[in-house]
């Protein structure tokens, strides 16, 4: 099996490195890299094993058995469309498209084509998060009362990335906007969001915010409180709590949590994560293993394109709520 990687910036290089680490039946025979920046793909390929090579165009990747798309957000829809038209399965970083009209049209094409497109929401491949979902869906944890989630970068992203990121809701918080409804299994009926620029004026210059809070209300009356930010001075911060009628479940409350505890016997964080790539390495590896199995017909797609419409819809509702300063009601889909 040959797999291509389009875009080898920080995310694409990570995917290429992880592909080269895979073993067993999921390990690619060849890994092909393309990047529009001259010589970037060659430099990454030279740092990896011999079965990783650079190619001169995106079209050359489409001859592979599958392609990973890790280019800037505003290029995803076009490249996914080209891959689908070539009948090449895709693993694409989120989101597939920059807005709902673009996404809706693209998902219709994907559905009609029969080509598998896996959306890169890595939490769906994280063992602890999957365990939370299993307990919720089986009834073991009981009915959900409240969910709290935090996602905060250790250091802000590069300034040149900010204008093309899609914004805090579509770039960062979209992971929680995908994960929480996926865990609970019921629709969001109301969204309230607020944001501020507290870290760097560069976010305001790009029409973005660097700190935000979101409240989701679900059809059952359960709520989720989501927080996101671009700077956590101690380390990368990504935690989840689910309060339910039988159990309270938590993910991310371990020695890596970048929290300075100030009780009488204070506990300092021992090994805080530096970044989401370090924190979710196992999830990213699992994502690639599952993608290989999806290509080979050994597994069903756990993160299909149509489901990712919901997270983008919620992200746009967050943006609308923040602009207008009031909750946004959502009709059931």
TrEMBL record:
It comes from the Bacteria. Keywords: Oxidoreductase. InterPro entries: Gfo/Idh/MocA-like_OxRdtase_N, GFO_IDH_MocA-like_dom, NAD(P)-bd_dom_sf. Pfam families: GFO_IDH_MocA, GFO_IDH_MocA_C3. Residues 2-121 form the Gfo/Idh/MocA-like oxidoreductase N-terminal domain. Residues 131-249 form the GFO/IDH/MocA-like oxidoreductase domain. One of its GO terms (molecular function) is oxidoreductase activity. Belongs to the Gfo/Idh/MocA family. This is Gfo/Idh/MocA family oxidoreductase. It comes from Thermocrispum agreste.
């Amino acid at each position: 099996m040959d797999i291509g990687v389009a875009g080898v910036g920080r995310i694409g290089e990570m995917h290429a490195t992880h592909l080269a680490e895979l073993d067993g039946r999921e390990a690619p025979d060849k890994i092909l890299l393309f990047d529009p920046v001259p010589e970037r793909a060659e430099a990454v390929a030279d740092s990896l094993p011999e079965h990783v090579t650079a190619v001169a165009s995106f079209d050359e990747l489409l001859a592979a058995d599958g392609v990973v798309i890790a280019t800037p957000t505003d290029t995803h829809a076009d490249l996914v469309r080209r891959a689908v038209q070539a009948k090449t399965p895709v693993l694409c970083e989120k989101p597939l498209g920059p807005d709902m009209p673009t996404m809706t049209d693209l998902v219709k094409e994907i559905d009609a084509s029969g080509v598998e497109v896996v959306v890169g929401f890595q939490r769906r491949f994280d063992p602890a998060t999957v365990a939370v979902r299993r307990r919720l869906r089986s009834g073991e944890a009981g009915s959900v009362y409240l969910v709290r989630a935090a996602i905060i970068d250790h250091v802000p992203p590069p300034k040149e990335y900010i204008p093309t990121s899609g914004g805090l809701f579509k770039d960062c918080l979209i992971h929680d906007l995908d994960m929480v409804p996926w865990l609970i299994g019921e629709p969001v009926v109301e969204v309230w969001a607020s944001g501020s620029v507290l870290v760097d004026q560069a976010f305001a210059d790009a029409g973005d915010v660097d700190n935000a809070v979101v409240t989701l209300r679900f059809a059952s009356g359960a709520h989720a409180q989501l927080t996101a930010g671009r700077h956590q001075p101690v380390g990368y911060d990504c935690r989840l709590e689910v309060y339910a009628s039988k159990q309270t479940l938590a993910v991310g409350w371990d020695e890596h949590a970048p929290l300075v505890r100030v009780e009488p016997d204070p506990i300092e964080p021992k090994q805080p994560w530096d970044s989401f790539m370090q924190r979710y390495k196992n999830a990213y590896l699992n994502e690639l293993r599952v993608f290989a199995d999806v290509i080979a017909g050994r597994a069903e797609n756990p993160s299909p394109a149509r489901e990712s419409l919901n997270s983008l819809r919620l992200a746009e509702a967050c943006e609308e709520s923040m602009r207008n300063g009031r909750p946004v009601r959502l009709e059931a889909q």
